[in-house]
Design goal:
The protein is mainly alpha-helical and about 750 residues long. The chain is about 65% helix and about 0% strand.
């Protein structure tokens, strides 16, 4: 199946969207061959038992699909040619009343003028070409061989018993002897005649009229070949083309011949297949239906009748000859009224017995009906509306590609419905064939291409290199890769401001804590907009948006992973020169994450206990170095009006920035105090400096005191009182140290 999907996609990728109208039919013929190959493979490899039965069912599906592509190619190539024709479509379907035209020419002109009739003929030809195989009867020389021998034996026999045995046999050897004498022919001849008539009907059913006539001649029944040949239209090349060397042919009294065929079909004394044969030739329905077996047999019978009716109506008028009267055949009228059009044909067939109705409900049969009745647009709309996860993927594939073929042939289809079918197929492709998706998205309306492909790529959990290859394929198929990247990142980030209840449970994550799968997908969503420097401005906005979300939830570890995932050349020189608010926010978040990450390193260093004097000295030096560095990082956050307390534009971003200041500025102040206070022994001057934090907090320029005084869901009364307690703690400790120092000085 994977190979087939790729082969279908290669046709889509190779088809020029702006090319000639025949490309839709050409693509359908390629699909036909692909399906036919699978049908042949399934049938050839069929085994016995349940497995073999399944293979035969599969082969039947592929054959039916192949037939469907064949029908599509035939009809839409014809429809495209008719649309491209300069012929006036409003012209009367009847041919000109030119008495010099032969029936053959008049029939050709009728098909050229009546596009619908030409389609009906093509549908009948398709039904004939795709009919199931059958075993024809073998050729047998000698007309009524066994009857002839019985008559000869009867004439020479002396035994009365022999005579009594054959008294019911005909005494003459001619085609009408049996009906004229009301006697039988020999059993062996009767059996062969039945098989012969069935074969003749099956040949006609398959459009192989010449084979039927040849079989009649080879079986020494030339008169029956002549009766079949009567359906040919009369032609005289001398009236058609002065340069023609063809001879006169066809039936000049075809209408009379049809009535004679109808009479043979009407005669209940004839064999059922003989009646069906002549009924089919004359365009009758009743007797043909009696021998029909499958859905396509019934459709063929009705389509054949419609064609003959339309031909008779179209050929009425002046003629170069006087037609023979057929009034004596009025009693052989068909009991069933001929269908008016193709839609009525299918309605009639679908109202037959349960077995035929079951065949008609087959998904591919429904599609074939839509193609034949030129209602594919309505079919696609219904199919799109009924789409669900349970829809057979084979039908999704068929309808998706059929829609592309039909649209390529110039037909107008509902874009929204075609897009829905293609999206359903893309969803299935995304599971195992993501490299093929771009080709199908490119067939969607322009306004759907970016959101569909963006949704597809942002859901993929693949390597960055694989993602870049998917972008390259998008560009190859004409998609706007930059728009796709922007949309994919926006969809992947999916930010949302936490509620007060969530903020009430606010807790900072440890820097070493692994991020969640959801956070990892959000971080990786930035890979799309960091794939090109042209997208860095959009990436910057998304980085800030996602960082705010992480920080509001205390996920500083996720924010750190996000910032570390950005390319080395992410920061652009013009951002630095312009000092844009988003870039300032990015730098502030970066400084916060650096400070908190190193704070964890500092805490680990302080807690590590030395085991010897040498280690104690080294440990003290490491604590001093770490304290100096972490202090610098923490002060860098506080000294720059972190996240801009002056911003008051009422936007959602401003609201988030204010909440972040409310959460993190007090946290940084408390941690800075902790660093200075806890290292008072290693760095004695840090104790006094911890007390100096009060001046920084009270500064109007930084506005830190406002964040400490502001109530929050975590601290309903604010944190200013707690900060004053820290200052008191530092002050008392400083007094204690000074008193201890004074005491030692006094002792000295």
């Amino acid at each position: 199946m994977a190979e087939l999907v790729a082969e279908f996609a290669s046709v889509v990728e190779g088809r020029d969207v702006g090319g000639d109208g025949s490309s839709g039919a050409s693509a359908a013929r390629v699909y036909k061959q692909l399906a036919k190959q699978r049908s042949d493979n399934a049938t050839a490899g069929a085994l016995f038992g349940a497995e073999g039965a399944q293979q035969r069912v599969e082969g039947k599906w592929w054959q039916s699909e192949s037939d469907t592509w064949d029908l599509l190619a035939r009809l839409y190539e014809q429809r495209q040619q008719r649309r491209d024709s300069t012929m006036d479509e409003s012209m009367d379907a009847n041919v000109d009343d030119d008495a010099t035209l032969t029936d053959f020419v008049r029939a050709q002109e009728l098909l050229e003028r009546d596009g619908q009739l030409a389609e009906y003929v093509e549908v009948r030809r398709w039904l004939e070409d795709t009919a199931r195989e059958f075993q024809p009867v073998e050729t047998r020389k000698g007309y009524l061989f066994y009857t002839r021998r019985s008559i000869r034996n009867q004439d020479t026999a002396d035994s009365n018993a022999m005579s009594d045995t054959n008294t019911q046999l005909v005494t003459d050897i001619d085609p009408d002897a049996s009906s004229r004498q009301r006697r039988d022919i020999a059993l062996e001849d009767h059996e062969y005649s039945t098989s012969l008539l069935r074969t003749l009907f099956e040949y006609v059913r398959r459009g192989r009229v010449s084979d039927a006539m040849s079989l009649c001649v080879e079986s020494d029944e030339p008169w029956r070949a002549a009766s079949i040949k009567g359906g040919l239209f009369w032609r005289d090349p001398r009236l058609e083309d002065e340069q023609s060397t063809e001879s006169v042919g066809g039936n000049i009294n075809r209408n009379l011949w049809k009535h004679a065929c109808a009479a043979l079909a009407h005669d209940t004394g004839n064999d059922s297949y003989e009646r069906a044969l002549y009924a089919a030739l004359s365009g009758r329905v009743d007797e043909v239906l009696a021998v029909c077996v499958t859905w396509d047999d019934f459709v063929w019978a009705h389509v054949n009748a419609v064609i003959e009716m339309r031909m008779d109506q179209g050929l009425r008028g002046a003629c170069v000859y006087e037609q023979a009267p057929a009034t004596s055949f009025a009693h052989v009228q068909s009991r069933r009224t001929c269908a008016a059009d193709m839609t009525q044909v299918f309605d009639i067939v679908e109202s037959l017995d349960a077995r035929v109705q079951s065949e008609a409900r087959d998904p591919l049969r429904r599609l074939q009906r839509a193609l034949a009745t030129d209602t594919f647009a309505e079919y696609v709309a219904q199919f799109a509306q009924a789409l669900s996860p349970e829809t057979d993927i084979r039908m999704v594939r068929v309808v998706a590609h059929a829609s592309l073929c039909v649209r390529q042939s110039g037909a107008v289809l509902p874009e929204a419905d075609v897009s829905a079918v293609l999206e359903a197929y893309v969803d299935r492709l995304a599971l195992d064939h993501d490299e093929l998706v771009a080709a199908y998205v490119a067939q969607m309306p322009k306004e759907r291409q970016t959101p569909v492909y963006a949704q597809f790529v942002q859901m993929l959990d693949v390597s960055r290199d694989h993602r870049m290859r998917l972008l390259q394929r998008a560009e190859r198929h004409g998609l706007d890769s930059h728009a796709v990247c922007r949309a994919a990142t926006s969809a992947g980030v999916q930010t949302g401001e936490p509620s007060d209840e969530q903020l009430g449970r606010f807790e900072l994550a440890e820097p070493s804590e692994p991020i969640t799968d959801v956070e990892q997908r959000q971080v990786r969503a930035l890979e799309w907009t960091t794939s090109s420097p042209h997208l860095y401005p959009h990436a910057l906005a998304q980085v800030c948006t996602l960082s705010r979300q992480f920080l509001l939830n205390g996920r500083t570890n996720a924010a750190t992973v996000l910032l570390n995932s950005l390319p080395a050349d992410f920061v652009q020189p013009e951002w630095i020169a312009e000092g844009a608010p988003l870039f300032q926010e990015y730098m502030h978040v970066l400084s916060l994450c650096d400070a908190l990450a190193y704070y964890a390193t500092w805490a680990e260093t302080v807690c590590r206990q030395p085991t010897s004097t040498l280690q104690s000295f080294e440990h003290k030096q490491r604590v001093i170095d770490a304290s100096v560095h972490v202090e610098q990082l923490l002060r860098r956050v506080l000294d720059v009006d972190w996240l801009g307390a002056h911003v008051q534009d009422g936007s959602a971003r401003t609201s988030e920035l204010q909440k972040l200041r409310m959460l993190y500025v007090p946290e940084i102040v408390f941690r800075l105090h902790g660093v200075l206070y806890e290292t008072r022994h290693a760095v004695p001057q840090n104790l006094a400096r911890s007390l100096d934090l009060a001046q920084m907090v009270a500064s109007d320029g930084l506005g830190i005191y406002r964040e400490l005084a502001r109530p929050s869901p975590v601290h309903p009364n604010g944190r200013l009182i707690a900060f004053m307690a820290l200052m008191r703690k530092s002050a008392f400790e400083l007094l204690r140290v000074q008193e201890s120092t004074d005491s030692r000085v006094a002792l000295v």
